[in-house]
């Protein structure tokens, strides 16, 4: 909440000296933010990294948890916890895309979902890097074409995501180099 108050995001944050790798960071942050015990997570993989609006590298870690898990949000970091079916990120009822130019000049699509949560009787806006990671994971898991346009070659999803990341990273590097 301190860095992005009011925004929807997955648990996560900066690595600390005791973290061995991105997986340790993700598990520690999930425990701190929502009370998810690391031993209750079956880590499956890391996804292609993304770059946030502050140009920090963000590596998503994917894992399975029991559907009976009850989050205990840390009020210093999390205001609410809600669940969205993964399929919503390929077949949404409320969606729009914005053409977005990063600070480095890279042009991309920014996904924006509005999810009406019946349990909380509230709508949540899911956009930016959070939506990007959710869409990519849904594409990998379901192997279906979404009901909206994406920046990937869906016939070569992994290699096109790698190329997108390399192009984004290169645009940031070029901008930094030109500012020297």
Structural account:
- The protein is α+β, with helices and mostly antiparallel strands.
- The chain contains 3 helices and 7 strands; from the N terminus they run H-E-E-E-E-E-E-E-H-H.
- The strands form 3 sheets. It has a 3-stranded antiparallel sheet with strand order 5-6-7.
- Strand 5 and strand 6 (107-117) form a beta hairpin.
- The longest helix has 22 residues, at 157-178.
- The chain is globular and about 45 Å long.
- It starts with 21 loop residues before the first helix and ends with a helix.
- The mean pLDDT is 91.
Write a brief structural summary.
The protein has 180 residues and is of the alpha+beta class. The protein is built from three helices and seven strands, in the order αβββββββαα. The mean pLDDT is 91.
Supply the key terms.
180 residues; alpha+beta; two-stranded antiparallel ribbon
Sequence-ordered SSE layout with sheet pairings:
Layout: H1 22-34, E1 42-46, E2 50-51, E3 57-58, E4 61-64, E5 95-101, E6 107-117, E7 122-127, H2 128-142, H3 157-178
Antiparallel strand pairs: 1-4, 2-3, 5-6, 6-7
**Helical coverage, percent range:** 25-40%
Largest sheet: 3 strands, antiparallel
Give me the number of helical elements. 3
Judged by helices, strands and strand pairing, the structural class is alpha+beta
Report low-confidence residues grouped into runs of 5 or more: none
Strand/helix succession? HEEEEEEEHH
């Amino acid at each position: 909440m301190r860095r992005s108050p009011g925004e929807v995001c997955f648990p996560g944050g900066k690595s600390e000296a005791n973290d061995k790798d991105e997986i340790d960071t993700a598990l520690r942050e999930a425990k701190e933010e929502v009370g998810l015990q690391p031993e209750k997570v079956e880590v499956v993989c890391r996804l292609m990294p993304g770059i946030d609006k502050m140009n920090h590298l963000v590596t998503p870690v994917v894992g399975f948890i029991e559907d009976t898990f009850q989050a205990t949000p840390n009020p210093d970091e999390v205001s609410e916890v809600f669940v969205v079916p993964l399929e919503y990120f390929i077949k949404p009822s409320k969606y729009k895309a914005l053409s977005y130019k990063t600070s480095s000049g890279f042009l991309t699509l920014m996904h924006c979902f509005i999810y009406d949560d019946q349990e909380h009787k509230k709508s949540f806006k899911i956009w930016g890097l959070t939506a990007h990671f959710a869409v990519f994971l849904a594409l990998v898991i379901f192997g279906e074409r979404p009901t909206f346009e994406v920046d990937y070659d869906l016939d070569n999803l992994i290699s096109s995501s790698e190329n997108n990341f390399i192009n984004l990273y290169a645009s940031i590097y070029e901008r930094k180099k030109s500012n020297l």
